[in-house]
Amino acid sequence: MAAPSAAGRCPCGSGDAYEACCGPILSGRPAPTAERLMRSRYTAFAVGDAAYLRRSWHPSTRPDAIDIDPELRWLRLDIIGKEAGGPFDAAGVVEFEAIHRDASGRGVLRERSRFVREGGRWYYVDGDVA
């Protein structure tokens, strides 16, 4: 799936236009919070941007390759809760549900993700899938 038009709604579900939400972050601007990084990573999965997913993954846990299933369609993101992860925090946790559909039907990914901020940038570290 291609990125939405600049004025189109962002896939992360914020309600904002892509150009005012995840677009600049996927293009290189640092995410201001752990939640914004998590939303941008959801958007990267939705639009198939594996390079961004690698860049936003902490080097200590980053996989060698990221395979994005082209048959998987990400439909909706719901933030369940968050702990810390603000602009002045060094770490944060974001719990979310991501609704998706593939050839076998609809599914839900629920994860409690951990993030760290280093050098002014947030990185995804790992997560516990429920």
TrEMBL record:
Q: YchJ-like middle NTF2-like domain: which residues? A: 33-127
Q: Which domain of life is it from?
A: Bacteria
The protein's matches in SUPFAM superfamilies, at most eight in alphabetical order, are given as: NTF2-like, Sec-C motif
Cite the Pfam families for this sequence. SEC-C, YchJ_M-like
Question: Family, per the entry?
Answer: Belongs to the UPF0225 family.
> What name does the UniProt record give this protein?
UPF0225 protein GCM10023171_13310
